[in-house]
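Please review this one:
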Amino acid sequence: MSRPNSIPFLLWILAFCSLPMQGRAIAQCNTPMLSVHVDSMFARQAGAEIDQRIGPEAGRLQALFDYSSYQLLRTDEADTPCGQEVAFILPAGRILHVRPMATHGNLIALELALFAGARAVMRTQLKMPKGGLLVLVGSQSPQEAYITSLTVGASGSLPATGSPGAASAAATPLPLGGKPLGAK
């Protein structure tokens, strides 16, 4: 007596179960449009100048780090749908890719990738509160560093930062058909 082949049956079950999961990423986003704000700064121990365009974030930076001088180099902000990544150009030839993956209540799940040219130097997934602050630090030496701060919230909910003369540029939304962050 021969035993029926169960592989086609299992494949059919997997295909059937995966259909409802295709819309799962959208269903996980209770905030469909998100605003991503990135500030790029240069910090050093020499001097005592604090760029006024940094605003109230300067106090948080001074509490976190031992630098006495902070200069705002660039401010970028972009609205992006949940699930679509956006790229920000940072100082020193770096590019930061941010993809909001899901929202639930006050939390946002993010996928981040930092590139130096075509080479990925960091990839991570994390959760942070809406409007929370994530700080990335790239040290040049013990006396100076590039600091990038990232805030994500509902579109239009983030407070305006900087002054009318602040450096600003638009971030680049990546095409929907583009390679995902994990693709090589």
